[in-house]
Amino acid sequence: MTRMPVVNRLVGALPLFLSAGLLAGCINLAPDYQRPASPVPAALPTDAATPDAALPAVRELLRDERLRQIVDQALANNRDLRVAMLNVERSRAQLRLADADRWPTVAAAVNGTRAPNTSTGDQTNTFQAGLQVTSYELDLFGRLRNVSDSAAASLLGTEAGARAARLALVTQVASTWFTLAADQEQLALARQTLAGREQTLKLTELRVSVGAASDVDLHGARGLLAQAQATVAQLQRQTAVDANALTLVVGQAVPASWLPSAEAPLNGEALAAVPVGALSDWLLARPDVIQAEQALIAANANIGAARAAMFPRITLSGSAGVVSDTLRGLVESGTFAWTLGASAAMSIFDAGRNQANIKAAEVTREIAVAQYEKAIQTAFRETADALVSQATWRDQVTAQQALQAGEKERARLTRMRYEAGTANLIELLDSERSLAAADQALVLARLGELLNRLALYKALGGEERAVS
User: Where does the sequence pass through the membrane (predicted)?
Assistant: First the structure.
């Protein structure tokens, strides 16, 4: 006996349940979303705006291949970034769950019952095999739709958060690498100073032995030598600490060949230029600002879900399949049967629970608005600070270079005069102190310029900013 007529009727019953979905989402009780006005000036504080400026990619920004390799390793191994990416996967799964609730769940089932016949009172068996739908909610007031919209916004926000974490990691690795390079350069300069003061001490001891210098000069030379030794020890410690910090942020040991070397002084060529647009609207594309706005969108959708809970919740259930009084009959001689049930439930008294949920959702949205506005204000402040500092750091480096060149020449001439006996030890030591200070200050100024450029890149959203 063919089963095709029964199967055809079984399949034909499915549209009865699926067509109910056409009624879903007829009403959306969520407020219309409007992006809040930016609470910052319309223009960025810059005189060097680049129209339609495109920020360089990370590998274009970082011009040292060793630093690029370290950044690649950090992106692959950093645990904080790994957690951020896993949060994205979790949000994606939560969105799939929210979307699944908007569709009926269809299950294949075989049921058997033994109950008395209502007319004869005899015990009879009933077996049914087919498809079942249980508790399919008709989303007439958009509750499920808004829950899904909230989950979608949360996913977009989590993705933006992961991009923000990636940008923060890149700039942190680069900052740590440049700081290590600066400390190594300062350590090399301190060792040069130490060698020079050792030579000065020897010369002073010789001059004391022949009566050309006093014990006061000798004690002064020894004191400056000890000071130089202390500086070397301090910078050795700081260099080791910076190397450990780099290892931590990268997530594994860094090969020595990737570390900076003292023989290559820091300079502005280590980073590409960072172009800046004129309008503060640029900041809306920062990943952290996008994350804050998506949190606001999710909060807005949650208001619709809370409002929908005030209205009746209508659910459908049913089944369609083959019915027989024997298991064998399900295959051979069963008859087609279907059932359909509906229920509607609405809270009459809930002690104000639904109203409280609506109020909580509305307050949550207001909190999200404030957080979004603060994110924009923070972005503007960070960008403005970096822009204001950009030109002054360049001027400071230029001035420090001139100062260092002058002090270097003064120290050279003073040593020549001291060795010739026409300058005293105080003059020599003063020139050496000034040169050492100028050398260290130049290193710090170059480091400050590089770190400020990294801060500007991060403030503008870097490679992770959204593309309009």
Answer: none
In whole angstroms, give the CA distance from residue 381 to residue 41: 11
CA 197, chain centre distance (Å) = 48
- Here the CATH number for the domain that contains residue 157 is 1.20.1600.10
Does residue 13 fall inside a structural domain? no
Long-range contacts of 162-166 (CB under 8 A, 24+ apart): 162/81, 162/84, 162/85, 162/87, 162/88, 163/287, 163/464, 164/286, 164/287, 164/288, 164/291, 164/464, 165/80, 165/81, 165/84, 166/75, 166/81, 166/84, 166/464
Query: Does residue 192 form part of some domain?
Result: yes
Residue 429 resides in a domain: yes
Count of domains for the chain: 1
Q: Please list, residue by residue across 241-273, b when 16 or more beta carbons sit within 10 angstroms of its beta carbon and e when fewer do.
A: ebbebbeebbbeebeeebbbebeeebeeebbbe
* β-sheet with 123-138: strand ranges across: 106-116, 123-138, 313-324, 335-345
pLDDT at 325 over 80: no
How many angstroms separate the most distant Cα atoms in the chain? 136
pLDDT, one tens digit per residue, over 39-79 is 888 888 776 656 556 788 999 999 999 999 999 999 999 99
Task: Output the average pLDDT for the chain.
Answer: 85
Under a CB-based contact definition with an 8 Å cutoff, are residues 154 and 298 in contact? Answer: yes
Q: What is the DSSP letter of 221?
A: H
Can you say whether the dihedral through the CA atoms of 200, 206, 212, 218 is positive or negative?
positive
Three-class SS state of 43: strand
**In the predicted structure, residue 377 carries a pLDDT above the cut 90:** yes
CB-facing half-sphere around the CA of 33: CA atoms within 13 A: 21
Q: Which CA distances in Å does 314 have to 68, 189, 304?
A: 58, 79, 17
Q: What percent of the chain has pLDDT over 90?
A: 45
Question: Treating both helix axes as pointing N-terminal to C-terminal, what angle do 65-77 and 215-250 enclose, rounded to 10 degrees?
Answer: 50
**Domain that residue 446 falls in:** 31-102+139-311+346-464
Q: How far is CA 329 from CA 110, 128, 186, 368, 381, in A?
A: 13, 10, 91, 61, 77
- How much is the pTM? 0.82
* Residues in CB range of 356: below 8 A, 6 or more apart: none
